[in-house]
From TrEMBL:
Quaternary context: Forms a membrane-associated complex with FtsE.
Residue ranges occupied by any ABC3 transporter permease C-terminal domain in the UniProt entry: 183-301
GO CC term (a single one): plasma membrane
Primary residence: membrane
UniProt cross-references to Gene3D superfamilies, sorted A to Z: 3.30.70.3040
Membrane topology: Multi-pass membrane protein
Protein location: Cell membrane
Task performed by this protein: Part of the ABC transporter FtsEX involved in cellular division.
Lineage: Bacteria, Bacillati, Actinomycetota, Actinomycetes, Kitasatosporales
Organism this protein belongs to: Streptomyces sp. NBC_00180
Pfam families per record: FtsX, FtsX_ECD
Official protein name in the record: Cell division protein FtsX
């Protein structure tokens, strides 16, 4: 009987404040969708870091004849065979180096033509203008500075370049976007909490006569509060379910089908369905507990039971 009464009161409360209940559902759905999206964005950035940092190379570019005339780092002339042998020997001795690949001028010219063959500059370049280089695969991409310290400024070395620096700029941008999404999410959560509190108070005010009678007949505080708390929890749970649906549809239509980014952007290692599905229980639990707790604390002050 008590459970039936509580359930009937939940239905009455949701119908009486239909507009505010709808606003609660929408705000909870949007805020938790942003919350889940920010978690997935963090996972995506971590996945991309693991994928791309594993492919990062450090390149030691060697001086050629053209550099000797124009680049102060190559003022002592083009790299000699003895200097190349010494650089390779030193690289082989370094414990941070996993693999070294030599790229000749002809190979560099061929790769450049493959990548930038349509560029007007490509037609004027010749193989002897390209730079020989050592492409170095590190055991730990964070150890780039060891290579830079050892070879920057050495005779025959034009420059040492780390691809990780380029990736860091990209991941910095992605992290910035993620924090912006979290800021919007926090704002939406505050709005949702305020709507929940106001909805509960309006509902309690509209039923103040019933709650007064219940207090007079000795009903416990929790028994009086339960319908209001569960109203907020139900509205929040509906909003959380909508947020989960948003995330699932976003993963399906943006990555797998529709836009099909996984097919168009093959260089990006997208997160899998497991990452999405593991976030859904957290979103549903948050959507249930957050409104219930907000309603509980609001009612303690408002009903004074």
């Amino acid at each position: 009987m008590r459970a039936q009464f509580v359930l009937s009161e939940i239905g009455v409360g949701l119908r009486r404040n239909l507009t505010m209940t709808f606003a609660v559902i929408v705000s909870v759905a949007l805020s938790l969708a942003l919350f889940g999206g920010s978690l997935l964005m963090s996972d995506q950035v971590s996945t991309m870091k693991g994928y791309w940092y594993d492919k990062v190379n450090v390149s030691v570019f060697l001086c050629n004849k053209s550099d000797a005339e124009s680049d102060p780092n190559c003022a002592k002339g083009a790299v000699t065979d003895d200097q190349k042998k010494q650089i390779l020997a030193d690289l082989d001795k370094m414990t941070v180096v996993e693999k070294v690949v030599y790229e000749s001028q002809d190979q560099a010219y061929k790769h450049y033509k493959e990548q930038f063959g349509d560029s007007p500059l490509a037609a004027s370049l010749t193989p002897d203008q390209m730079q020989e280089s050592y492409r170095i695969k590190l055991k730990d991409p964070e150890k780039y500075q060891v290579i830079a310290t050892a070879f920057d400024g050495r005779d025959g070395v034009q420059s040492v370049q780390d691809q990780k620096g380029i990736l860091d700029n990209l991941f910095g941008l992605l992290n910035g976007m993620n924090w912006a999404a979290r800021a919007v999410m926090a704002l939406m959560l505050v709005v949702a909490l305020m709507l929940i509190v106001n909805t509960v108070r309006v509902s309690a005010f509209s039923r103040r006569r019933e709650t007064g009678i219940m207090r007079l007949v000795g009903a416990s505080g929790f028994y009086i509060q339960a319908p209001f708390i569960m109203e907020a929890a139900v509205a929040g749970l509906i909003g959380g379910s909508v947020a989960c649906a948003f995330l699932v549809m976003a993963r399906y239509f943006i990555i797998d089908h529709g836009l099909a980014l996984s097919e168009k952007l093959t260089l990006i290692n997208f997160i899998g369905w497991d990452a999405v599905l593991t976030k859904l229980p957290l979103i549903l639990a948050t959507s249930l507990l957050m409104p219930a707790l907000a309603a509980f604390f609001a009612l303690r002050k408002y009903l004074k039971v």
